[in-house]
Amino acid sequence: MKIEKFKVLLYLKKSGMDKNGKAPIMGRITVNRTMAQFSCKLSCTPSLWNPRASRLEGKSKEAVETNKDIEQLLLSIQKAFDVLVEKRTDFEAKDVKEALQGSVKTQTTLLSFVDEHISELSTHEGIDMSKSSVWTYRKIRKNLAEFIGEKYRLTDLAFGQLTEPFISDFHHYLLDEKGFSSGTITIYVSLFKKMCRIAFERGLCKNLLFAHYRVGTPKVTTPKALSMSDFIKIRDVELPEDKPRLSVSRDLFLFACYAGTAFIDTVSITKANVKVLEDGDKWLVYNRKKTGTLARVKLLPEALELMAKYEDEARDTLFPLLSTNRVRIDLITICKLAETSKTYSYHSGRHSFASLITLEAGVPMETICKMLGHKDVKMTQRYARVTQKKLFEDMDKFIAATEKDFILAL
C-alpha cells in the first residue's frame, strides 16, 4: 500500500467544557483520503491551547504535564501506524485508531488484574499470607485508582497504555500528593512492580514493565524495646475489671516479651507447637507466618503460666484470637494506665525478648537468631541492639581479662 498522506491533528472540543472550565482534547488521524476521530482522554484550559502547535503554551504545571502526555500519545499513534505499515496490507485511518485504542478493549486492564491478584491472595489469607499483607495490596489498589483518575481522568488503563513515566509519576504522586513515608512508598512501588512482572509472565502484557525502575531503600528503624521499669509497670498495672479484654491484650503482649513471637504467630500457634524434650523442658517450635522459617524457643516459666491461664479444650490455639488493630488500641490504653515513658507497639514485645530478656542475660546472638526464626544473624544484629547494660558488662569482662594478663606478664 502506498502512503501518500499520514497526519495527526489535535484540537479542542470547546462545546464539551467540564465544571473546572477545561475543554477535552480531541484527535483526528488522516491516512490518504480516510479520517478517524478519537478522544485523547486529556483536557486543558482553553486559553493555554496553541492550535498551530497542538500544544499548551507556557511553563505552568498544567502545560508541562499535558504536553508530556501529548508527546507520549503521538508516539503511540506513530508506533501503531508503523506496525500497520510493516504488515504490508491495505489499511485506513480507522485501522490506526483501532490499533491504538482497540487493544484497550481486548487487553486485561491494570486495575482488573490487581483485583484478580488480590482475590487470589485472599484465598491464602491465614495460611501463607497474613491479613495485613493482603490489606497492603488493597491500599496499593486504592491509590492506583486515585492516581489514574487524577492523572489520566480514567477509571482504568490497559497494560498496553502503560509507559515508563507511569511508575515515576505514581511514585511522586504517593510522595507529593499523599504524603507517604519513603518506607511506605518503597513497599507500594516494589509490590506494584512485582504485580507487573506477574502480568508479564502470564502473557497479559508484551513487555516487562518498569524492571529497571529503582526507588530508594527506606531507612531501617529498629523497634524499641521496653525499659525494665516500663516492663514492670505494664506487667503489674491494675486494669479495670469492667474491661476484661485489656487483660487479654496485656497477656498476649507479655507472651511476646517472654517468647519473642510476632502477633500473627502468637494468635496462630497451637498445642501441637509445644514440644516436650527428653529432659522435660517445654519448647515452642513453629514456622513463622511472615517468612516460613523455623523458630525454636525454650518456654520460660512466665510464658508457661500465661499458656495455662488461657488453656481451653474447645480451642486448638494457645490463646484466644483478637484482631491486631484491637490489641494495638488496647496497648495504647494500657501504656497510659501504666504511665510508661512511651507508648509501645506489640512488636516491641518481640524486640524486648531479643534484647531485654535474652541478650542482657548473656544469650549468644546466634542462639537468639534461632529463637526469633531469623534467616540470617545479620537480621538479629539489627533487630536486637546491644543494650547499654550489655555493653558495660562486656567491657568489664574485657578489662578484667586484660588486667589478669598484664599481672601474669609481670
From TrEMBL:
Keyword Metal-binding (UniProt): no
InterPro entries xref list: Arm-DNA-bind_5, DNA_brk_join_enz, Integrase-like_cat_sf, Integrase_catalytic, Integrase_recombinase_N, SAM-like_dom, Tyrosine_recombinase_XerCD
Alphabetic keyword roster: DNA recombination, DNA-binding
GO annotation terms (biological process): DNA integration; DNA recombination
Gene3D superfamilies named in the record: 1.10.150.130, Intergrase catalytic core
Residue span, Tyr recombinase domain: 221-396
SUPFAM superfamilies noted in UniProt: DNA breaking-rejoining enzymes
GO molecular function: DNA binding
Domain of life of the source: Bacteria
Similarity annotation: Belongs to the 'phage' integrase family.
Name assigned to this protein: Tyr recombinase domain-containing protein
Lineage, uppermost ranks: Bacteria, Pseudomonadati, Bacteroidota, Bacteroidia, Bacteroidales
